[in-house]
Structure formats: structure tokens, C-alpha cells
Amino acid sequence: xxxxxxxxxxxxxxxxxxxxxxxxxxxxxxxxxxxxxxxxxxxxxxxxxxxxxxxxxxxxxxxxxxxxxxxxxxxxxxxxxxxxxxxxxxxxxxxxxxxxxxxxxxxxxxxxxxxxxxxxxxxxxxxxxxxxxxxxxxxxxxxxxxxxxxxxxxxxxxxxxxxxxxxxxxxxxxxxxxxxxxxxxxxxxxxxxxxxxxxxxxxxxxxxxxxxxxxxxxxxxxxxxxxxxxxxxxxxxxxxxxxxxxxxxxxxxxxxxxxxxxxxxxxxxxxxxxxxxxxxxxxxxxxxxxxxxxxxxxxxxxxxxxxxxxxxxxxxxxxxxxxxxxxxxxxxxxxxxxxxxxxxxxxxxxxxxxxxxxxxxxxxxxxxxxxxxxxxxxxxxxxxxxxxxxxxxxxxxxxxxxxxxxxxxxxxxx
Amino acid sequence: xxxxxxxxxxxxxxxxxxxxxxxxxxxxxxxxxxxxxxxxxxxxxxxxxxxxxxxxxxxxxxx
Lengths: 414, 63
Known about the structure:
Helix content of chain A: 40-55%
Distance between the termini of chain A: 220 Å
Oligomer: heterodimer
Order of helices and strands of chain A: HEEEHHEEHEHEHEHEHEHHEEEE
Strand content of chain A: 15-25%
Strand order of the largest sheet of chain A: 1-2-3-5-4
Order of helices and strands of chain B: HHH
């Protein structure tokens, strides 16, 4: 029986492979694991069935350190993000079959557009799913409290973003004070999703202790942010019971997380700014109200003072008028008084005159002058004929003298 | 809404009420002084509170 030695077989396979694949080719696969060792990047690639997610193909690949450096030079930070666990990639590889180490793909190049394209696809899918569930604006509709003072921060403790954010708030020029609590999460790699979900759940459980939450990380490759395009994370953000502000350092392109959050800003610094501005607005509103109250109160006071003045003036005028009226009455009275008293005097005088006249009339001398006489007997005045006897001596007094005579005859009137 | 912010919100509500009362109703001079004082109190309280966040010890030490 003709048989190959193992080495001969492998060598043969190596030659066949080399002949059929002299040049690098592009291959699509998913990275199940990416491990860094001594600067070289070792990748486990696989392909899953579209129907049931079962693994249908597998291969190992390696990016030599020199190649890696070249790729980073060419494509920048995105390279790191692309060559990560879970990423679907398109790689240019040369096929290698080593007698000893078997089949391996040597990565020569990476299609960054493909990765970004896949990303975009995922993003669109996530957006659609969220729109269907009506979650796109849910967090956005939560009312922001008047003051953002107690803030939950989802970020990495080592991240520059967290320190910058914290510093800016604690050293703010307005003297505002804050209570900040870090809910640590990785901000890149595969752990982000799991950790973000866990922390958001914790946050919901204690939401009465905070006014809002922020998710922040420093700038990096857009592909670093893919966790924030994932449906599970975005659902959690949308359903969060606290309003969320994202400041995850994207330069141009928003993530889905930015879309579903209440407020999205570019950087952690901007997030701190936003919070400070919010509180400043509240304070200036307070001051404005204070001024309004003062203004209206002053106005009212002025109105009242004016009313008092007018009342005072009115009272003054009225009392002057009353006085004048009384004075006029008095004057009138004093004018009448002389007339009145004169009248009385006149009356009295007339009375006196009357009495005088009467007295004069009754004056015996005047009576005598009118022809009357007085008759007296023995010094007493005789009034009646009865008092006289015939032959009695009587004296008759005239106005200018008297006559003594004797009664001859007496006659009585009946 | 959280308990602490209810106090900012309550303060705001009361301030609004005072403002409205001043604008609409006739307030006697005695009441006026009281309202102004209260408004001033509320504003001052808010401004101080803005600058003194209470430490939540439970939260601080909860890991």
C-alpha cells in the first residue's frame, strides 16, 4: 500500500494551496475572539448559519505586529475597534498551510468600510425596532427637574471623561454643589453592553435618589461606540425612569443611544456644561421672580401711598369747607345779631314808652288837667256819693287849687 | 420625581402663587409685607440649596 508520511501529506497540501491561492484574497467572517500577544493579534474567525446561528465554518488568523502598525497608520483608531470580539469583518488574507501548525490566514488588510457599513446596518435595524416599540422619544419626554443636583454617572473610572466631568462640576464658577455617584461600566469592548444593562437596572431601582443620569466617555473611534447602537442597551436607556444625558465623545456620527436619550451632547465636558447651564437658568429665573415680586409690591405700595395722600388732601379740603360753612353761619349770625338785639331793645323801649304813657295817663295831675276833680272829705278821697251826707263839708281839688263847699243835694245814679 | 426636587418644585410653586396673587388680587398692606418676606425666604433657600448638595450616605457607600 502506498502511503504518505504526515509531513509529505502536509507538504503536498501546502503546495496545492500555494498554487491555487498565490495572491491574498478577501474573506468575510465574524471574529469570535481577538487576543493580543507580544504585539501580534491572534483572531479566531467563524461563520454562523443565517438560519439558526450554528457555527458552520471556523479558521484561525493572525495579524503580525508589523501589519497591525501599518493598518493603524492607514486607518487610524478604527482598526482596534474593528478587530474585536463579535465584529463582522472583511479581511484580505493570504492563505498559509504549515506542515506543523496547519491552516492559518495571514491578515494583510482590513475593509474598514465594510465594518462601518455593518455598523450602519445594525444602527438602522436598532432604530427601526425602537421606533416600532415607540421608544424613540420615551426618555426625551421625561420632565427634567428644575435643578440637576444629584447625578448618577455611567462611565469608566479610569476614563478621562469621568474625571473631566467631575472636575468641571465640582469646580464650577457659580458655586453650585453636586452629589455625584459613579456607576462604573467599561466604555469599549464587549463588556459594555452587559455592564450598561446591569447598571441601568440598578439605577432604576434607586431612581428617587437622583435627578438625572449621564453616560459619558472620552473621544475614540466611532467603532468603539458600537455597544451604544445595540438594541438591548438602547431599550434600557429608553425605558430608564430617569432622564439620561449622553456625552459619549462621538465626533460626527450619533449613536442610537444618543437618539433615545433625553439629551445628547458631544463630550463629557459638554454634558457638564449643560447641567450647569440648566441650574443657572433656574437661578436666574428665581432672581427674575424676586424682582417681579419686588416691583409689583413697590407698585402696590405706591398706589396705597397715593391713595392715602389723596384721602388726606380730600379730608383737608372737606374740613376747610366745613369750617368755612360754619364760619359763614357765624358771620351771618353776627350780622343778624345787632339787628336782632336792636329789635329787642326797640321792643323794650316801646314797652317802656307804653308804660310811661299809661303812667302819664294815670297821672292825677294830668287827669285833673283834663277837667276831672278830686273830692275829699276830712282829708280822705271820696269815691262814692254814698259816703256823703247832705250838708257835709267837702273839699274839691282842681288842677290849680281847691274849693271848700257844702253838699246841698245828693243824687244817686241807678 | 424625586423627593429632594419636590422641595425646589414646591418653592417654585409657592413663588408662582405669590406672584399671581400680587398680580391679580388686591392684597392689603399687612399681607403684602408677609408675602414679600416669604418670597424672599423661598428664593434664598433655593439659592443656598443649589450650593449645598446633601450627601446621601447610603448611596455613597453602596457598591
